Amino acid sequence: MKWDELAEESCSMARTLSVIGDRWTLLILRDCFLGVRRFDAFQDRLGVTRGILSDRLKQLTEAGVLKKIAYQDRPPRHEYKLTAKGLDLYPVVLSIVHWGDRHMAGDAGRPVLHRHQSCGHLFDPVLSCSECGDPLRPQEVDVLPGPGRTDDRHLPVTARRSG
Amino acid sequence: MKWDELAEESCSMARTLSVIGDRWTLLILRDCFLGVRRFDAFQDRLGVTRGILSDRLKQLTEAGVLKKIAYQDRPPRHEYKLTAKGLDLYPVVLSIVHWGDRHMAGDAGRPVLHRHQSCGHLFDPVLSCSECGDPLRPQEVDVLPGPGRTDDRHLPVTARRSG
DNA sequence: CTGAGTCGGTTCTGAAATCGAACTTAATTT
DNA sequence: AAATTAAGTTCGATTTCAGAACCGACTCAG
């Protein structure tokens, strides 16, 4: 399967991965959320080759996750900023960071801490139910066919016993 | 930068991506959460080549995300199951799916729906603060150096003005 | 007891992606 | 005039991936 075929799958995960399912892309997004905006700044921080960086920034821009904003005209220069669509990736990024904090931090502890401005506390992110507010656990979630389903390859195995 | 170097970075995101930062790995994990357990079942559902699948399952097992469990002896056969460490990736997987639901679903709507058993409602996942319970927004989160930090390449740009 | 099928892989070759380094273009600074 | 900055592009060498065939241990049907 190729990257552009991924986007056609009847699965929201596959479609999302067609945009962000690459390690450099996700590291670029991490830096975006940390306030990095310029080509050379990404390159210095990430250590990625310029060719790859150029390609990934173009893809993210075409996908509507980043937008190019000019900050001077002669010579033309611009910076990359997260769109609303890109800002919506915050839960993805923070969930990934949090798993690393819990399971990949060495004895020295986690490399960064997060503080919630509105309550003032250091916190961990928790994924919870929009309806009742309780934390979500995989055993307590049913996966059902939705209106946009075109095949049942991505339903749970327990829901496909008829075939 | 190579994959094994990623694991040494002073950044929880980079460390996590050294384990799951690959599109096939994440699709394998999606299927794990949907109840897929066996090599050929993964191969049928994903359309991945057997060589890649073999490699990724080995990596996930070595990383402690999956464990091999024998279900018969002659010939030796086993299945792959999520460990506790693997189950902790649920917020990552669900956040990715949810972003796809919001931003990549076509006119037909999302391919699958999620129902929370304990409250009975169809829901969206929300990332919230462990301390006050409010939804987290990137503008309201401060990133601070933690005890395990070994350099400041992964701090926000605003926290590095001294250098 | 032969032949097909199952399961969990490995091996092979050509195609594609990535790496590192150098080069380009337009403008400013020394 | 020469160096520097910013945002890329280009190029050859290396690495990874895709697609297909093959393998080994066993079971089952005839």
Automatic annotation (TrEMBL), chains A, B:
Domain HTH hxlR-type, chain residue ranges per copy: 11-108
InterPro entries linked to this entry: HTH_HxlR (IPR002577), WH-like_DNA-bd_sf (IPR036388), WH_DNA-bd_sf (IPR036390)
Matching PROSITE patterns: HTH_HXLR
Keywords linked to the UniProt accession: DNA-binding, Transcription, Transcription regulation
Signal peptide start-end: none
Domain of life per record: Bacteria
Keyword Mitochondrion among record annotations: no
SUPFAM superfamilies reported for this sequence: Winged helix' DNA-binding domain (SSF46785)
Record carries keyword DNA-binding: yes
Disordered: annotated segments: 140-163
GO MF annotations in UniProt: DNA binding
Pfam families in the record: HxlR
Protein name per the record: Transcriptional regulator, HxlR family
Species, as recorded: Pseudooceanicola nitratireducens
Organism placement in taxonomy: Bacteria, Pseudomonadati, Pseudomonadota, Alphaproteobacteria, Rhodobacterales
